[in-house]
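Notes continue from the previous slide.

Worked example: a multi-chain complex. Inputs as given:
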Amino acid sequence: MAVKYGREKIGEGIHYTTLINKRQKTNTMFIHLITPLSQDSVSGNAVIPYVLSNSSSSYTTVTALSRRLALLYGSVIKGSVAKIGDSQVMSLVSGCINDRYAFDREPITSELTEILTNCFISPYVENNEFYKKDFDLKKQELSDDIEAEINEKRSYSFKRAGLVIYEGEPCAIPVKGDLEAVAKITARSAYEQYKELLKTAQIEAYFVGGAECPQSKEVLTAALTGLERDYAGDNISEKSPAKQELRRVVEQHEVSQSKMLLGFKTDFSDSITLRLMNAVFGGTPFSKLFLNVRERLSLCYYCSSGLNDKKGVVYVDSGVDFQNAAKAEEEILNQLSAVQSGNFTTEELENARLSVINTWRGVSDGARSLADWYFQRNYSGGNESPEECIEMLRLVTKEDVVEAAKSLKLDTAYLLTGKENT
Amino acid sequence: MNKKIIRNERTGEHYTHIKHSSGLDIYIWRMEDYSTTHALFGAKYGSINTTFKTKDDSDFITVPNGIAHFLEHKLFENEDCDVFSLFAKTGASPNAYTSFDRTCYLFNCTDNVPESLEILLGFVQSPYFTDESVQKEQGIIGQEIKMYEDNAQWRVFFNMLGGVYHNHPVKIDLAGTVETIAEIDADLLYKCYKTFYNLNNMALSIAGNVDEESVIAVCDKILKPGESIELESAFPDEPLTVAQSEATQKLEIAVPIFNIGFKAQPQSGISAIRAEIETNFALSLISDESSDFYKTLYDEGLINSSFSSEVFWGDGYFCSIFGGESRNPKLVSDRIKEEIERSKKDGLDKERFEAIKKSYYGSLIRDLNDAEAIATLMINTGLDGLNAFDIIETVAAVTLEDVMKRLETQFDINNVTISIIEPIGKRED
């Protein structure tokens, strides 16, 4: 096999995973802190990766840190926050070119690991809080980010629909929180939350590279095993329950094109079959939704479906003219009925299967896609390789796909539309 | 058929350039052990090529804006079926894009490369347009244009270009406008197709898990030789100064966003690559995250981490752009101009120049991991008559003196357009 996968438990709730693939010309490291989403901690947690990737005790300004990274051939350290199921994931990612490409073969990777580790466990702290001046700027940026979400209407409609689809569940909480929650955090409170996360959160570290780098591993694992721990336990996500009645929400904004999101709930447990069902239904440019709703009837500019397998939710995302929204919804549901009643050809099924295989085969070519593949599986306690999943996918029958489609129940219909359309 | 191996000592990499008997340039970069293959079949034809002539035309003709993009959409439809459904059988994932000066059709796949390539070369060479299908497409593209009307990043950029350029078609939205696409009909599409989709004006670029022999076999079978038609594009006269120094619009956004464009003399060929790279060095030295200038503005809360800069150039245009979010974009613009003047006077930091060079080089090495990035690099350089390693070698050879000279020539602080998108203001409920 092309990719060598190794996973070690190095502490309570701490794992170090290596993915070695000799074709990689770069080395990439990820450190994830994973914790349950909660209204009280969400914004304080969200700001942490941005503070950590900005400076550290050794490089106390963003300027000093950037200059050091530039000298390491434009190495990067980035912070981000994301959602997986009902959990919030605070991440640092760093990447560099392999040492063999350096002008003088300098040991880029191990030096970068030291800087990354320094950022992760030793932030720039003054008076027992994050250095206030920089922290306040990051806090301002976090609220700017939240405010700016409205600029991009497609992702904004996802966020707004999510509030309704996952109502009452941790997953409904926006990953950066809201303006009110951000306003409450301080350099002190966020620092306290950071220390708490180091103690209690699930920690997953990944190294993706062309070859093992023992020095890098030693530096990072020494830092992680040295943490004082009081582990809160592995994260779990519950499947999202279907509402008793379909919920409709319409929001009005200054837009010329409407966005429509439909959320379906499923308790179907086999995510590989769901993935294939999604490809037949709306996951490809030759799926039911694309060929019928967009191409044949020209009802939408885009119309595709996706899957949140951790939560058991299939969603359909579309951009429509307001006067076509009802017709588009009807047609989307017609197409779902077609899949539910087995009204698709062997060719449609095999094409969909081939498309998923094509995507999964390509996973190992990219550092990010590879690390994310295993992170998604490690989170649910699995570690299947793309090749193993492809083998399972080959066994899925038409009847299985029909069963999976039948489990879908329309739960939420969200429409973002222009002000003049009422 | 003429075959040449292009090697680069610095990276130890190589690729093959084949001049096919049909007139097409073919670039193949084999990536050992990769699963993915990325293929691009493209023409040197984009939204700016609206005025042109061939040896069959007595004079230049001008066609409606947005036609290159329209043509791209229409080629995805064969006479008897949708192109997506052909690729569905090979498992490849197809796509296409139109830029200011390129139209490219592409697929990526992990299996069945020759079969997918046959489909790619086949459909791009089989135009089929009727007035009915053109009409249907006018509806679809009309929706696409509408979607971009709501997109603040897109608007701020085109409003800036509209301020920088008086006449050059780069200032027009890639997709045209609802009015210009209404003028398009099947005859016009055929005219543009025959002019620009000539194999002498095109290239094929493939990177990844690919076998050279099988690529050539498919090309031999499918390619229809084209004779050279002596294609010329013309652009309206463009004054050196900007058309207007300010452009503002209101949209439903949170914090104002801005683009600041510095207009400069256009370049072409390898001298454009040098100008781009040296100007990029200048931009990094002045204002990247490791600069004192960035830190000062950041600490004052004038910019946030969305602040960035880029070089934007092509046939007949060249400008340097700063962009981001700010509550006071005009002050940001004033400060940038001051910093440029200060740098011209005091010089640029030698030590940071060396670090930026390593950083630039590192980013180019990182791209070599990725089949898509490599295929795109080969077709972009190839269609301009350049070698894919020209960029990495130019970066390695740049000196601080080169960058200082570039600072003088590319940044005239009196020849600038600032484009701002302001929030509409709180909604009245």
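Summary box: The CA atoms of residues 159 and 174 of chain A lie 7 Å apart. Residues 132-148 of chain A form the longest helix (17 residues).
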